[in-house]
Fold this sequence. Notes:
Blueprint: H1 2-23, H2 28-32, H3 42-61, H4 78-98, H5 101-104, E1 107-111, E2 118-122, H6 123-147, H7 157-162
Antiparallel strand pairs: 1-2
Helix pairs in contact: 1-4, 1-6, 3-4, 3-6
Amino acid sequence: MKTLFQMLAAYNGWANERLYDAAARIPDAEYRRDRGAFFGSLHGTLNHLLQGDRIWMHRFTGEGDEPKELDAILYEGFAELRAARRAEDARIVDYVAGVSEQHLAGALRYRSTRSPADIEQLLAPLLLHFFNHQTHHRGQATTLLAQLGKDVGVTDLAAFLRSEAR
């Protein structure tokens, strides 16, 4: 099971790089314009992706930032946001590399964000949720980019597996 999560962690970083490469080509006003997405703008969506990852990584590790709001802007500047994204992606890769099969088979106890409650669930399915959440919001971001005339390119897992990154 660990190799599956290592693949998903590497895929996550690869897909995020492609997403940020496309976002870097958007004029700032368009990048920040509210387009009616869950988190308003492309900027809001990218901030939420980082936020969600930090929330879950804090739950997984007990370390790092743990944002309390799902729609807060963590970084106003694109360059700072991208640097933080890269650092978080590296942190995710390192975490998955260090997790044992025994730990993956165990449970995780955490506190939910929206309506605070203590929850205990198996770690492996939570990690699947973690990576699925990223894919979900990257899909929203690629739609926003397409509306702005920018093509992220293929970001499917199969394309990653065929790429030199793998």
